[in-house]
Amino acid sequence: MQIKVSDTFLQPLIKINRTMRAKIVAGNWKMNKTAQEALTLTQEIIEGLKNVELGANKQVIVCPPSLYLSSVKNTTENSKLQVGAQNCHQNDFGAYTGEISVPMLQSLDIPYVILGHSERRTYFGETDEQIKEKVDKVLAYDLKVIYCCGELLAVRETGAYFDLVKQQISTALFHLTPTQLQNVVIAYEPVWAIGTGVTASPEQAEEMHAHIRHLIAEQYNQEIADQMTILYGGSCKPSNAASLFSKPNVDGGLIGGAALKADSFLGIIACM
Predict the structure, then answer these.
(1) 119, 126, 151, 189: which one is catalytic?
(2) Which of 51, 66, 189, 272 has its CA at 20 to 30 Å from residue 256's CA atom?
(3) In a 3-state reduction of DSSP, which class is residue 77?
(4) CB 272, CB 25: distance < 8 Å
(5) What CA–CA distance (Å, rounded) separates 115 from 95?
(6) Gap between the Cα atoms of 135 and 123, Å rounded
(7) Which residues lie below 8 Å from residue 194, measured CB to CB, with a gap of 6+?
(8) % residues pLDDT > 70 (the chain)
(9) 253-271 per-position pLDDT tens digit
(10) Distances from the Cα of 1 to the Cαs of 166, 177, 204, in angstroms?
(11) Is the distance from CB of 138 to CB of 187 less than 8 angstroms?
C-alpha cells in the first residue's frame, strides 16, 4: 500500500536556506542493549566517526536507556559523539518511582532529551499538555529538546495529518520565546510508516517537513523557521537515508532500529 502525497504540498511556500541550521543524526536505542552491549556499540560508533568529517553544523547523538547514560557519557569524552536521554519527568524531584528528572540529567551533563515520542504517547498515554510541561522543564535547565510529532495510520488515511501535527506543535512549542525555540529540534515521525507495511517516500517526508517549517514561519518568522532543524523519524536506514536527507526541509534523522548496529548507523551518518 502506498499513500500519496497531498495535493496541498507546501514546499513552494517556503524559501529554503539550509546553511542556517544544524544537521543531526540521533540514535534512539529505546529499551535495547545490555550494559556491556551499550558500551561496545558506543565504542564502535566513536571509532567509526574518526573517519567522518562532521563539520561545525553536523551532530551525532545517541540516546541509550537511562540506566546507561552515565557510562555512555563517560565513554564519549573527547569524541564527536553526543548523548541524549529518551525521556524525563516534568517535576524536579518527588515520589515518582522509576522516573528520571531533568536535574538528574543535568548533573550527568546530558545535553539532549527526546520528548513526545510516539511510543510515549501510545503506550504511556502522554498528552500534548504533559509533553508541554516536560518541554518547559528541560528548557528551564538549559538542556535541548528533540520534540517528536506525527500521526497514526488512521489519521493519515482521513487526510487530517496536517491538522494533527499543527495541534501537537502548537500546544507543546508555540508558547516558547524565539530564544527558547533555539534549543528545540523537531522530529517528525510518520507512525503509519513504521511496522505497518505502508511505504513512506522521501516526498511524503518532505511534504510534512515543509508544512512544519511553514507553521514555524507563521507563528514566529521566516528566519526562525529557516534555523529550525527538523528530523525524519520513520524507518530511516542506509538504503534510503541519502534520498531522504537530500530533500530541502529534511535536516537529518531520529533513528530507531538502524541505530542499534554501528555499521548501519554510520551508514546513515555518511548520508548527512
Answers:
(1) 189
(2) 51
(3) coil
(4) yes
(5) 21
(6) 19
(7) 118, 234, 235, 256
(8) 91
(9) 999 999 999 999 999 999 9
(10) 26, 41, 14
(11) no
> Can you read off the three cell numbers belonging to residue 116?
513526545
* Closest alpha carbon to 82 in 47, 42, 135: 42
Distance CA 188, CA 67 (A): 26
Q: Which residues contact 271 (CB under 8 A, 6 or more apart)?
A: 238, 241, 242, 244, 245
pLDDT digits (tens, 9 = 90+) for 173-197: 999 999 999 999 999 999 988 766 5
Q: What is the dihedral of CA 238, 240, 243, 246, to 10 degrees?
A: -50
Delimit the domains of the chain by residue range. 20-48+58-269
- Angle subtended by helix axes 161-173 and 202-219, to nearest 10: 40
Q: What are 61's three cell numbers?
A: 547523538
pTM given for the model:
0.93
Identity of the residue numbered 98: G
Rounded CA-CA distance 182/271 in Å is 25
Residue 161, C-alpha cell as written in the block:
495529518
Catalytic residue among 117, 209, 211, 214: 117
DSSP bridge pairs for 25? 60, 253
Q: Which residue from 177, 90, 178, 103 is spatially nearest to 143, judged by alpha carbons?
A: 103
Q: State yes or no: is 117 an active-site residue.
A: yes
